[in-house]
TrEMBL record:
Signal sequence region: none
Domain of life: Bacteria
InterPro entries reported for this sequence: KR_dom, NAD(P)-bd_dom_sf, SDR_fam
Protein name per Swiss-Prot or TrEMBL: NAD(P)-dependent dehydrogenase (Short-subunit alcohol dehydrogenase family)
Amino acid sequence: MSKSTLPGAFRLDGARALVTGASRGIGRACALALAEAGCDLVLSARTGAALREAAEEAEGHGVRAVALAADLADPGAPSALVERAAAALGGIDVLLHNAGVLPTAADGSPVLVPFQHSTQQDWEHVIAVNLNATAEICRAAHPHLAASDRASLILMSSASGVMGTPLLDAYAATKAGQISLARSLGVGWAREGIRVNAVCPGWITTDMTSFASGTEPFSQWLMAHVPQGRWGTPEDVAGAVLFLASPASALVTAQALVLDGGLSTPDGGLGAIPKPPSPFAA
Ligand SMILES: NC(=O)c1ccc[n+]([C@@H]2O[C@H](COP(=O)([O-])OP(=O)(O)OC[C@H]3O[C@@H](n4cnc5c(N)ncnc54)[C@H](OP(=O)(O)O)[C@@H]3O)[C@@H](O)[C@H]2O)c1
């Protein structure tokens, strides 16, 4: 899409945006959408090579894109990243905090266990990346966003934060926490001109969900619970993020925007449709 095809209210020419978790998946698609809308960008994640590739692709839209590596699990790293991003861009107007993790085993696979069998260590790692880093980023970003005349802070939550998700209890708790924080900050910072919203995707095909999207009958069983009956794509999420970042959503704050194909609607209107047996059944 060329720049001129975006309706004006969705354009962000000259805005300065920080995107975390921008090396792949949802964050990368969102960063590219923001670049296409005219934002200069700082892209962040741990993996420098993937980040630089994403930054190069963003620059193809004629904007500036800077890659800054950071591990947000390290206390102090989130606020240091915000300061480095503000220095690199000369301020911050849009902050998409998207980096997030599932509880992960040593071999990289997700830990999917009933809560009573999960460990406190799993809980603490997920809380550190998904919730503690969120708090630190929001606090550090406040003065920069308050100095902007088009400030939008977007937290990448999840439909699991709206519904809860057994076997991913810690993850769901952090995502509910992000929704609550977006609502509190959206109200608390409204008179300073800072909009704060959460985005709550359902099942989206990325590295994070490849354990499910690439496995049958698991994938089919999951999609049987989604009224639209399909996996979402990172680009599906990028459209919503662009809306919340741009003047098109000028009156939207303290909201949780759910993009889940109807998954979190009670029974999704699919009550009468037979579903395959659960792969978790004994
Ligand atoms: N996929 C879904 O179905 C889905 C649904 C709802 C919500 N979400 C949320 O959407 C966000 C992105 O998910 P995704 O599916 O795109 O996941 P993904 O493909 O695993 O990407 C995660 C991103 O976060 C970065 N990251 C992970 N740990 C980090 C850390 N400690 N410090 C800094 N960066 C870190 C990763 O880069 P490095 O590994 O290079 O650091 C990567 O860029 C997450 O917050 C997730 O909870 C995803």
